[in-house]
C-alpha cells in the first residue's frame, strides 16, 4: 500500500488555536485521536490540537464535521474501537475535515472554539478497549544487551533473526499516562528458596505501542502487503518490569507477574496518516544475517516500513523535583533500532490464523540503541544493577526508587515537514502495599 | 469461605423436563449458566436442563423468576459478564428460583415450558466476553512428563513447586465447543534454518477453565481466604497446541503462535454452587516437597479447594466415524492431579496487584495423571511422537490428522449426591489454508 500526503501535511499550514503552531507535539499537522472526559461527563472521542482537546462528538453534533466520519464519531461511544474498525477512509475523512476546521481562515472558528477544552481541564482515558495486548521483542540491541547478561558469548537465541518473537501480555492493567505505579510485591529468588516482598529491581521499558484498526477473521491471516492497512497508529508505551520477579518466574512459559502490574501508554494515537511523512526504509540487516522468510517480505514495507522517530527517556526523583532540578535524560535514540517492522509484527501475529481485533495493542518490545546513550531500560543502563547511574543532586540509581518519575518522549521529524510528537507517557513510582 | 448446600443439591430432586433426570451432565442439580441464540435471535442468558435450554430472559419477562436475579438477567445483554460480576448472592438466588421452577411439582410448569428450547435447535456462544485469558501449568504430572522429554534427570524447574507458573494467553481466538480447528501454518525448525508450512505436530491439551466472577481493583490483590468468592465456576478447556511451532518460537518469552490459533471451551459454566458437593481436600504434597509461601495457604482451601472430577478424552478419526466405530478413549483421570488449587491460581495472579475482571478465563494447564492411562496430551501419549497410538480400524496416530475429532468430558461425582457434568467440549481438525 502507499501512504498518500495531502494538504493536511503542508508544513506551512497554521491553526487559529492559540499556541498550536508552537506546540512541539500537537500542531495542526498531527491531529491524534484519543478519548477524554470533560469534568463530570462520560468519555468521548477527541483530537489534540496544541494545549487543547477538540470534542469530536460536540463538533459532529454542531454540524462542523459530517459524513461517515461524523456518524461513526457519534456511534463510537466511550471507546474508539468502532472508529478504529472503520479504517483509513474514515480516519482520512475526519482528519481532512478537522484540519480545515482548525486551520487559519476556517469559516467556523467561533463554533469550533465552543468544542475545545484545555488539556489541563480534562481527564484522558485509554483510547480503545484493548481486547488483547501482545508484546514483541523486536529491539535487537535490547535483546542483545539482555542476552549478554545471561550468555555473553551467544546473546541472541537461534530463532531471533527468523521469528518476530512476541508473547501475550496482560490487557487489563494497561493505563494511560499519569496512572501511578504501585511497586509490585511477589516471589523472588533468595539464597535458600524464594523470598516474598516488594520488588527491589523495578525497571521501565521504552517501547512503541501499535494500535490495530480493522481486524481479521479467525483463520484468515493478514498478508504482509496489506498489513499496514490494519495499523491505526502509534503511541509511546512503557512496559514496567520487575526484574527480580521476572528472573524467578519466567521459565519455562515467559514473563507473567513481572509485567502485569501496570503498563503505561500515551493516550493519543498518532494516526497512520499523521505518520506518513515520517516513513523511512527499514534499515538493512547486518552482513551475514539471514533473509526473512518470504511471508514477511514486501518491497513497499522494506522501503517505507520504519519511522523517523527519536525516542527519549527522562527520570526525576522526588528529591530532584523538590529541589527544582531538571529531569535527567537517561537515553535518546532512533525508533528504527527494530529488527522487524510493525507490518511484519502484524503479519507474523496472524500467520497461524490468530485473529486481531480493532483496538488491540501491540508493543514493540524495548527499543535500545547499540550504544549506552540509547539504552531503553535501567537493566541495560546499570549493567544488570552493577553500575549505578548518577542523578543530579547526588543520588544514584540502579533500579527505580519510590517517588521516581519516568517520562517517555517521542518526536517525529523529516526534512520539509513539521515535526510532531506523541504527548506525555509518564508514571510515578509509589510505595508497595502493606504485605 | 464456606460452600453451603441447600435444597437445590438434594439428590432426590426431580425435574418435570422430559429426560432431565436421566441426563448425565445436566440434571436439575446442575443448572449451569451459558449464552445461547434461538434461531435468528440475539444471544441471551440461559441455564441447561437435560437436553433443553431455559431462556432466562424469557423466564424473567414472564415473571417466573424475580428479584435481583431477574433484573440482572434482563440487563446482562449478550454476555454474562454483568451476571458474573454480581457474584454468588445473585447466582444463588437465580439457582434456587430456577430449581423450584423446573422441579416436579412446580406451579409454573406450563409457563416455563414456553421458555425451553431443545439444545439441538440453538446455537451456543462463549458465555462471557473474555477480557483476558491466562493459562497456568498446575498439572504437575504433565509438567514432569514434558520436562522429561527435554531434561530426563531434572524434569521440573526449580521454581515449579514454589510458583503457580502461568502465562498470558490469547483471548480473541477462544471459541465454544464445536468450532472447527483449521490446522495452523507457521515457522518450524528445519535441518538448515526454519521451514514454513502447516504444523505436523498438532496436539490437544486437556484442561479445566476457571471463570472469574467479581474482579479486583488494580493494585489490590485477592487474598487466599477470599479467592473462592471470585470464581464463578468451571468449564472444560482444550488448549490446542502446535508442538513444532512451539519448539521453535517459545524461547525466551513463552508460547505464542503455537497456541493462539484456537482454544475450545465448553460453553456452560458449572457454577461454584453446583460444584459445592464435589469439593475435596487438595492432595497432600509428596514427602520432601516445600511448603507453599504463606500468601498461598488457607486452611479451608487446603481442606476443600480441589474437585472430584473425572476427566476423559476421546478421539475419532474421519475414517472411524465413516465406519461407525466408537470413539477411542485416550485417557481418564482425576482433576485433582493439580499441584495448586484454583484459589491459589487466583491469589497468585493478583499478588502483584494485577486486576482480574468479571468474565476473565483462567486455564489450569494440561491435567495428566502419573500413569499413561491419564495423560492429557498426545505429546505425552506418543512420547513426543516416537510411539504411535493404535486406533480402531487400523490407523495409528502420533499427532492429530485432518478429520480427527477430540472430545473432552468431565463428570463430577460424590457419595450421596447426583453426578453432574460439563457438556460437550469438541473440536474437529480441518485442513490448513493454502499457503
Automatic annotation (TrEMBL), chains A, B:
Region (Disordered): 176-197
Position of the signal peptide: none
Keyword Cell membrane: no
E.C. no: 3.7.1.2
Enzyme class, broadest EC rank: hydrolase
Matching SUPFAM superfamilies: FAH, Fumarylacetoacetate hydrolase, FAH, N-terminal domain
Molecular functions (GO terms): fumarylacetoacetase activity
Coiled coil regions, renumbered to chain: none
Domain Fumarylacetoacetase N-terminal: 29-127
Domain Fumarylacetoacetase-like C-terminal as annotated: residue spans: 140-426
The entry's keywords: Calcium, Hydrolase, Magnesium, Metal-binding, Phenylalanine catabolism, Tyrosine catabolism
Cofactor dependence: Mg(2+); Ca(2+)
Pathway: Amino-acid degradation; L-phenylalanine degradation; acetoacetate and fumarate from L-phenylalanine: step 6/6
NCBIfam families, per the entry: fum_ac_acetase (TIGR01266)
Cited PANTHER family: FUMARYLACETOACETASE
This protein's name: fumarylacetoacetase
Source organism of the structure: Qipengyuania pacifica
Amino acid at each position: 500500500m502507499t501512504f498518500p500526503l495531502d494538504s493536511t501535511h503542508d508544513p506551512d499550514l497554521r491553526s487559529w488555536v492559540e499556541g498550536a503552531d508552537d506546540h512541539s507535539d500537537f500542531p495542526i499537522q498531527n491531529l491524534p485521536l484519543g478519548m477524554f472526559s470533560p469534568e463530570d461527563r462520560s468519555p468521548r472521542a477527541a483530537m489534540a490540537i496544541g494545549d487543547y482537546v477538540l470534542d469530536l462528538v460536540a463538533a459532529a453534533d454542531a454540524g462542523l464535521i459530517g459524513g461517515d466520519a461524523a456518524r461513526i464519531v457519534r456511534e463510537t461511544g466511550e471507546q474508539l474501537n468502532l472508529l478504529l474498525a472503520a479504517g483509513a477512509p474514515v480516519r482520512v475523512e475526519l482528519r481532512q475535515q478537522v484540519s480545515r476546521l482548525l486551520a487559519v481562515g476556517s469559516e467556523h472558528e467561533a463554533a469550533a472554539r465552543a468544542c475545545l477544552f484545555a488539556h489541563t481541564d480534562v481527564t484522558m482515558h485509554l483510547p480503545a478497549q484493548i481486547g488483547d495486548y501482545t508484546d514483541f521483542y523486536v529491539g535487537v540491541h535490547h535483546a542483545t544487551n539482555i542476552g549478554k547478561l545471561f550468555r555473553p558469548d551467544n546473546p541472541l537465541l537461534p530463532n531471533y533473526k527468523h521469528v518476530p518473537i512476541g508473547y501475550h501480555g496482560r490487557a487489563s492493567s494497561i493505563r494511560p499516562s499519569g496512572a501511578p505505579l504501585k511497586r509490585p510485591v511477589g516471589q523472588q529468588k533468595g539464597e535458600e528458596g524464594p523470598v516474598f516482598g516488594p520488588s527491589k529491581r523495578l525497571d521501565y521499558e521504552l517501547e512503541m505501542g501499535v494500535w490495530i484498526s480493522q481486524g481479521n477473521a479467525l483463520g484468515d491471516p493478514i498478508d504482509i502487503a496489506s498489513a499496514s492497512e490494519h495499523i491505526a497508529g502509534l503511541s509511546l508505551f512503557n512496559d514496567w518490569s520487575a526484574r527480580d520477579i521476572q528472573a524467578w518466574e519466567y521459565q519455562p512459559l515467559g514473563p507473567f507477574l513481572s509485567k502485569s502490574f501496570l503498563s503505561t501508554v500515551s493516550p493519543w494515537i498518532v494516526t497512520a496518516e499523521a505518520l506518513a511523512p515520517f516513513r523511512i526504509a527499514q534499515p538493512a540487516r547486518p552482513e551475514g544475517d539471514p533473509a526473512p522468510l518470504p511471508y514477511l517480505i514486501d518491497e513497499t514495507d522494506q522501503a517505507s516500513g520504519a519511522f523517523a522517530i527519536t525516542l527519549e527517556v527522562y527520570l526525576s526523583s522526588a528529591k530532584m523535583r523538590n529541589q527544582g532540578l531538571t529531569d535527567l535524560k537517561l537515553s535518546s535514540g532512533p525508533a528504527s533500532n527494530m529488527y522487524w517492522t510493525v507490518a511484519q509484527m502484524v503479519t507474523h501475529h496472524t500467520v497461524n490464523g490468530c485473529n486481531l481485533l480493532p483496538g488491540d495493542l501491540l508493543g514493540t518490545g524495548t527499543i535500545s540503541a547499540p550504544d549506552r546513550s540509547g539504552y531503553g531500560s535501567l537493566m541495560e543502563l546499570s549493567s544488570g544493577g552493577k553500575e549505578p547511574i548518577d542523578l543530579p543532586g547526588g543520588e544514584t540509581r540502579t533500579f527505580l526508587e519510590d517517588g521516581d518519575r519516568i517520562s517517555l518522549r517521542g518526536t517525529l521529524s523529516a526534512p520539509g515537514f513539521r515535526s510532531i510528537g506523541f504527548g506525555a507517557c509518564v508514571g510515578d513510582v509509589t510505595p508497595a502495599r502493606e504485605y
